[in-house]
Structures are given as structure tokens and as C-alpha cells.
Amino acid sequence: MSVIEMRGIKREYRMEARKSRHPKDGASSKDDEAVVVRALRGVDFSAETSDFIFVMGPSGSGKSTLMNILGCLDKPTAGTYTLDGIETSKSDSDTFAYIRNRKIGFVFQSFNLLARTTALENVELPLFYRRREKDRKRQSTSARKERAMTALRDVGLETRMDHFPSQLSGGQQQRVAIARAMVNDPAFILADEPTGNLDTEMSLEIMGLFQELNNQGKTIIMVTHEPELAVYAKRIITLRDGELVSDTQVTKRRSAPDDLAKWKHNHALLSEASSPSESA
């Protein structure tokens, strides 16, 4: 089943030119023509249920622009974007707010957790702001709390629910962010450099969690600059100069939990080898 359908997506920005303060003889003092920056040049892209897609490309390729449109943070200049049956390109601000809250789970590089609220309270936030559907009662406080607790258990943080972000490691904070992204059961997770602030061990933990969620049927789209992580996805799309230049399947997909176990084993061996020998 298709979750995302993009057809002919273009995004152009008009940069106004400055007026010449001292035009040369015979030259016009009017503004020069506005410069048009074509960030996306007609991208066709689709994602099915249970897809795990990496979006890659050099700086200036259009990754951030595509992410903003996927996340309904921006609208395309031309083209259509259908998300879970909703055509978003002409949606109003209220529909956009509904889509962001109910259809998309956001995960960011910097976690974006509220410092003065607990892990549980951070995960509850999307439920608190969730709009009441017609003919349905607003979710009770106890129901919201139980749902947030379940999301934290699913990411292995059942013993950290009352901890503040400052009391959690980087990997644990990202797990809280993933629980928050999942709590509304979105159509897909949109992750922007989710391992960018993490070390190797924590990165493998987070990739393992994403693989687990993907195996449970969740669609995941991840924007990243880290090509070494691509072995954990199912597809890789590459952008260059605003165009989608390749869309390839990962034929030799690796297991992040298995790689994490190997990393820990090798790290332990290195630690033993570097430690001083015990005196006889």
C-alpha cells in the first residue's frame, strides 16, 4: 500500500536582486530580474508501507527541501504530494497542522526535548495537542499517560520515564524522541540526521530500534549524510542538483543489532588488550 506519492515536485525560491546605487550612464536603475533558485526540479517519489528509505546527496542537492515538503513544513511550487490518501499540495494551514500531528512522526538530530519535562511528559505532548475528531470524546489524561508509557516501554525506557533529558544519555534522549514520534501511530516516521550527535554504539542502537519498528510495519524515511549507515535501510534515493538521480534497493542489508553485538565484543577485546597486565 502506498503511503507517499510525489509527482513532478518542484520547489523554486525567488531571490530579489538589489537596486544599483550608482547606475552607469544609460543603465536602468530598476531592479534586475529576480534570481530563481530551483531547489527541486520535478521529483517523482513514492514510499510503500514498511519501506525504510535513506535520502542522500551532497550539500545543496535538495535533501532539506524535500524533507520540508515531506514533513508538510513547506509546499511545492508545482507537483502533487499525496500522504496516506490526503493530497497535501493545496491543503490549508489547519489541514497541514492535522497532518503533522497525526500522520508524521518527526525525529531530529538535536532530539528537541523539553528540558524541564520528564521523558513521559515529552512523549505525551503530541497527544495533548491532538485535535478531537468529530463525534469522538477527547482522550482522557489517564489514557494519554498510558499510551505514552506504552511508547516508552516499546523503546526500552520503562525505567526512565520520570527522568529529565539532562539525566539521560544521548541515545536515551533519542529513544524518547522516537517514542514521541510513534505515540500517535503516524503513517510514517521522518528522521533528520537522527544519529548525527551520537557515537558509534548509540548510533547502532538507534538504527537497531528503527529496524525493529520497520519490521513491525512502520514506514521510515531518513535524511542523512552518513553513507556507512545505508546498509541498514531497504532503499536509498540520491538527490543531486534538485533531481532524484538514483533509487536503489539495498541488496545486502545488515542487522544493526548484530553489528552492535560485534562492536561491543571487539571493543571489550581491545579494552582487555590495552589494560595493564596483573602482576604475578
Describe, in plain words, how this protein is organized in 3D.
- The chain has helices at 63-70, 93-102, 119-128, 141-154, 170-182, 200-215, 256-274; strands spanning 2-15, 35-48, 52-56, 78-83, 86-87, 104-108, 188-192, 219-223, 235-240, 243-249.
- The radius of gyration is 23 Å and the shape is globular.
- The chain has a 6-stranded mixed β-sheet with strand order 6-7-8-3-9-10, sandwiched between helices. Strands 2-1-4-5 form a 4-stranded antiparallel β-sheet, covered by helices on one side.
- By secondary structure, the chain is an alpha/beta fold.
- Strand 4 (78-83) and strand 5 (86-87) form a beta hairpin.
- It folds into 2 domains: 1-11 and 38-62 and 74-103 and 190-263, 3-Layer(aba) Sandwich (Rossmann fold); 116-185, no CATH class.
- It is 32% helix and 25% strand.
Query: In which range does the helix fraction lie?
Result: 25-40%
Strand tally:
10
How many H/I helices? 7
Oligomerization state: single chain
